## 1
Amino acid sequence: MQAASVVSAKDLCLTYHTNDGPVHALSNVDLDVRKGDFVSFIGPSGCGKTTFLRVIADLERKTSGEITVNGMTPEEARKARAYGYVFQAPALYPWRTIDKNIALPLEIMGYAADDQKRRIAEALDLVNLSGFEKKFPWQLSGGMQQRASIARALAFDADLLLMDEPFGALDEIVRDHLNEELLKLWARTNKTICFVTHSIPEAVYLSTKIIVMSPRPGRVTDIIDSTLPAERPLGIRETPEFLAIAHRVREGLRAGHSYEE
Ligand code: ADP
Ligand code: MG
C-alpha cells in the first residue's frame, strides 16, 4: 500500500506580478510527496524552489492548479500546524537565549509553560544541543545556530518539515556532519521532509526522491526515486550507485538550463 499523500500538486502555477511584467515562478508543477519521504528540490537560483515551499506553507497563494497539504488546503494545514519551517539563515533573535528562541512560536500559539519546557527539551535533544539552552545565539557556531533553528521548527512536533537551503551558508565539513545528523533525525522521527538545496551531493545523499527544477518558467524537469538504501554512511558518496544518481541529477539540471544570460 502506498503511504498517505502529504503534499500533492497538480498543474500548479504561480505568477508574480511585478513592475517589469509577470514572473512565472512555478509553471504546471505536478508532484506527490508521501508520508515519510525525504524530498529534495534542486535547481539553479530563481527556479521557484522557495516559492514552492512558501505555497505549501500558505505564505504565497497559487495562481492556478491544485495543491493539498495533508489532504487540506495550505491555509487549513497552516491553521492545523501541519509543518515546521526552517529558513535559509538561522533567524534567531540575538537577545533571546536558545531555549527562549525555541519558545517564541510556542508562546505566540499559547502553549502552557510546562508543555513549552517539555517540547524545548525534546527538540534540543533531537538536534544534540541539550545543555546549550541558556546560551545566546552569538555564543554558538554557525552549524549549532542552524541546529537551534531546526529545533525551533521541530518544537511543534509537526509531521512535515520544510527546509529552505538550511546548510547553504555552512562550510562543507560542518554540512557533511549536519547531513548525517539530519538523516538520523529523519529516521528516528518518521517525519516527511521537503528540502531545498543547490548541492547535488547533498540532494543525493539525503533524499528518497529528488525533484530537479529549471527556471523561466520554474518547472519540474525530472523526478528521481533514489535506489540508495536507508542506511547511508558518508562513504556511500563514493559508490557507483550514488554517482549514477548524481549524474542523472546533473543531466537534468543541464537540460533545464538556458545559457542565454
Ligand atoms: P529559488 O528559491 O529557486 O531561487 P524563488 O522561488 O525565490 O526561486 O523565485 C522564483 C522566481 O520568482 C525568481 O525569478 C524570483 O525573482 C521571483 N520572485 C520570487 N519572489 C518574488 C516576489 N515576491 N515578487 C516578485 N518576484 C518574485
Ligand atoms: Mg530560494
## 2
Amino acid sequence: MSRYRVTCIPGDGIGPEIMAAAKVVIAAAGVDIEWIDVEAGAEVMDKYGTPLPEAVLESIRETRVALKGPITTPVGSGFRSVNVGLRKELDLYANLRPAVSIPGVKSRFENVDLVVVRENTEDLYAGVEHRVGADAAESIKIITRQGSERIARFAFEYARREGRRKVTAVHKANIMKLTDGLFLEVAGEVASEYPDIGFEDRIVDNMCMQLVQKPEQYDVLLCPNLYGDILSDLCAGLVGGLGVAPGANIGAEAAVFEPVHGSAPKYAGLDKADPTALILSAVLMLRHLGEGAAARAVYQAVCNVIREGRQVTYDLGGTAGTREMGEAIAREVARLLTDQSAGGG
Ligand code: NAD
C-alpha cells in the first residue's frame, strides 16, 4: 500500500476538533497517511510575525496535498485572510464545491447532485481596488483568456472524469460584455473540444432562480470568482447547509481540501460541531490521491450514520458530540470495508 505524506492544518475555533474526528475516520479507511501538522492563523502571529508562516507553504509545496480546518480572519485587524493567501501563493486556481443531497439531512430538495467549479484567482477578487477621493471607490474586474481557459478546461476534464453530462457557464455577459463576455467566449471554445459533454450558459440572476426552483437540472456549474462564491453557498443551502458542505482548492502543483464553513468560534472546544463537511472534504482528498475504494467507503459511512440519525450532531437533529459522530463514522467505515473483503468485493 502507498504511504502518503499530507500536510494538515487543523485551523482554529472548531478546526482542531473536527480535524481529530476526520483523522480517526481516514485511519479506519486503511489509508496510510503520514500527517505533517503545521500551524497557521491568528494564534501563530506572535511566534512567526505572520498568520501564514513560510513553513506552511513549504510543507504543501513538498507534499502537494493538504487537509485544512477553518481559520478565523479577524475583521479589521489588517492581516490578509490565510485562506486567500494560500490560494494566491500556491496558485490554487480551481475551487470545487460539490452539493449533493444526503438522505437524512433536512433540506427542501432530495435530488440535488451538482458541483460548482469556481475560478479562484481573478475577477473582482484580484484585490485591485482604490478610493477615488473621499466619496468614491473603484474595484477592477480582471478576466483573462488564460485564467478563463484553465478553469473551463478544469471543469470539462472534471466532468469527463466523474461521468457528468453537462457544464453550465454562469455569467452576466449581457451587461459586462467585455469581461464576462471573454469568460463565456473562452468557455464556448473549450466546450467545442469536449463533444461528449453538454454545454449551455445561464445569466447569473436567472441561474439563482433556476437553482432554487429546479436544482436537479444542473450538473457542473462553471463560474467566475464572484458568482462562484455566491452560488456555492446557495448550493450548500440546497442540500442542508454549511455543516455538510465540502470543498477543494486545486492548482497545477498542489491541492488543499477544506470545508466551506468557517471556524464557528462560539462552538470552539465544546465538542458540538459537525465534522461531516471536513470528512467529506477528506473524501475529495482520497479521490484526488487515487484511493477510490477508501473514498467510497467513507462517503457511504457518512450517509449511513446520518440516515440512521442516532449519532449525529445538533445541526442534523441529534445530540452526539463531534468525537462521538466521528467515531461512529469510523466504525461504519471499518464495517463496510470488512463486509466488502468478506464478500470478495
Ligand atoms: P461559520 O461558518 O464559522 O459559522 C456560521 C454558523 O454556521 C455557525 O455559527 C454555526 O451555527 C454554523 N456552523 C458552521 N460550521 C458548522 C459545523 N461544522 N457544525 C455545526 N454548525 C456549523 O461562519 P462565520 O461565523 O461567518 O465565520 C467565523 C470565522 O470563520 C470568521 O473569522 C471567518 O473569516 C472564518 N471563515 C473561515 C473560512 C475558512 O477557513 N475557509 C471560511 C469561512 C469563514
